[in-house]
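Protocol step 6 of 9: fold each sequence in the batch and record its C-alpha cells directly after the sequence line. For illustration, a two-sequence batch is reproduced in full.

Sequence one:
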Amino acid sequence: MITRNIFLFLAQNDFVKNRAEKWGPKFGAKSVIAGETIDEAMETARKLNEKGLSVTVDHLGEFVYNKDEAIDAADYCVRTLNAMAEAGVDCNLSLKLTQLGLDIDKELCLSNMRMILDTAKEHSNFVRIDMEDYSHLDPTLEVLQELRRDYDNVGTAIQAYLFRAEKDIDDLKGMNLRLIKGAYNEPPEVAYQKADDVYRNYMNIIKRHMLNGSYAAVATHDHNIIAEVKQFAEENNISRDQFEFQMLYGFRTDMQEQIASEGYKMRVYVPFGNDWYGYFMRRLAERPQNITFAVRGLLSK
C-alpha cells in the first residue's frame, strides 16, 4: 500500500512530471505506450489485430483547463477515428472528459463529445469514456446520460473500489461498460481500502452486470478473475458475445493471445501520445510487479 501511494502521489506531482517529460518516455514507459502519433497507434493496432486481438486506443491527456486545448483534443479524437476507418483496423476509441473541457464548461464538453460520436457513428465505431477520479464521477455520468439520449455508441467504466459501484451498475443497466478495480487514490469515505474487499466487489459487479443481460468489458490482468468469469459465463449460459476481456498494452501479452485463441474477445487498451507520465505512474501503482518495466527501461538507455 505504501508503494502504491508513493506512485499515486508522483502521478499528480507537477515538478516530477515536468522533469520526467524532459527525459522522454523512459523508465519502461516505452514498453506500454504505442508511440506518440496516430500513425504509430494505427501500426500497433494492425499488429495486434494480426494476432487476433481487438484494440481500443487512447490519446493520453487529462485535466485540460484551456478551451482551445479542449477543442484541439476533440479534433485529434476525430482524426484518430478517421484514421481507424482508413486503416481498416478493429479498434475503438477511449477518452477522458477532462481532456475535452469537462472542468471548463459542461456544454463545451458535450459539444466536443457530440462531434466525436457523430464521427464514430459514421464509421460504425464505439467510444468509451474513461472514468477518472471520484470528484469527476457524477459530472461524467451526467454527461454520459445526456449523450445516451441521442447516441448508443458510447459507454463508460465503473470502478469496483467505490462503494457506490453496484448502484451505478444497476443505474446503467443495458449499457456497454468497462469494469475495473480502479486506479486513483480515493479516501476511505468513498472507497474500499483493502484488496480483498475490492476483489469481492469487483466480482460482484461483473456478475451482476452480466446477469442483467448487459455487455461487460472485464478489464483485468488477474488470471484468477479471468478463470472465474469464464466459469460463471458457462454456468449461467451467458454468450461470449455478451462480454470481452481487456488488458493494457505491454502487459501479460502471452495471456492476451491465449485468451483470444480460446475464442474469447480480447481487447488491448493502447495509449499513445506525449502526455504519458500520469498514466504510467498509475500503472506502477496498481501492481508492484509493474516496477520491473521501469528497471528494464532504465537499463535499456
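Sequence two, same batch, same settings:
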Amino acid sequence: MKKVVVTGANGLLGQTLINLLLKDNGAYEVFGVSRGANRTDRTDFTYIDIDITKHDQLQNIVIKFAPDFIVNTAAMTNVDACEGQKEACTILNVDVVKNLAEISVKSNAHLIHISTDFIFDGEKGYYKETDTPNPLSYYGWSKLKSEQVLAKSNASYSVLRTILVYGLVNNMSRNNIVLWVKDTLESGKEITIVDDQYRMPTYVEDLAMACKIAMDKKAQGVYNISSNTLLSIYEMVLQIAEAFHLNKDLVKPISTATLNQVAKRPPKTGFDLSKTNRELGFYPKSFQEDLQRFKDSLI
C-alpha cells in the first residue's frame, strides 16, 4: 500500500484526488492536510487540520506519516488578491513548496506540485514545457519561483502546469468558471466576459488523474495538463450555456482593456500536450466533451 499525503485536502483538486485514490481498492493510504474541519464526506482517510505555513509543524506531521508521495494542491490562486497580498502569496506559493521539497528529501518521497499557465506572458500560446517563462503577475511569478525551488532541490518531483480548473466537490470555498456561468445564467442575469483572452480549461477529474499517473510513474520534471482545444473565454461561456441549455443571449463580449483588472493576464496561453501524451500516456479531450462529462456527473 502506497502512502500519499495530500495538502489542500479540502480544496477542489484535493478532494477530487482523495476520492480517486480511495476508489483504488486499498492501493493507497491517504493522509489529507488542510485548514479547518474535514470538508469531504469521507472518514476512510486520515485528516489533519493544520496551517501548512507552519514550517516545523508540517515537517513533523508529514515525516511521521512516512509518505511515498506528497501531492501539493494548496496554493493562493486568486490572481488579483496575490497582487495585493504579496507576502501571503509568497509564503503559501513559494515557502511552503521549499519546505515540502525538504520533507520529500527527508522522507524519500516523490513530490507532485501544481503550477500554472500564468508563468507565461501569453504572447504566443500553445506553450511547451521548455518555453521561456515571463510572468505578468505576482501570482505567476510566485508559481514560477516554486518551480525553480524544486529544480534547485534534491527532491524527486513532478510539476503539473494547468489552466482554469473547474469541477464540483463538497463545501467548496471558491467558485470556478463553469459553476459561476451556470449559476448566473440560471438566475437570468447577464454576463459580460472577455473575448480577447484565450485558454484551455481543465476538468478537475483530469487533473486528479494526471496527479495519479505522475505518482504511479514517478514522472520527473514538468508536464502540461489541460483540455486540448484553445478557446476565448467568451467562447467557453457560450459552450457552457449550450451544454446546460441556458440563454446564450445573456452573454455579452467585452475587451480586457475595459476591465481594469488589478493584475495583468496573459492574452493567449494554452499548452502543447505532446509530452503529456507521449510520456504520461494521457490524452485530454476537448472542453465540450469534458463539459458533458461534468454535466453527467451532476445528475
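Proceed to step 7 once all outputs are recorded. Observation for sequence two: The radius of gyration is 19 Å.
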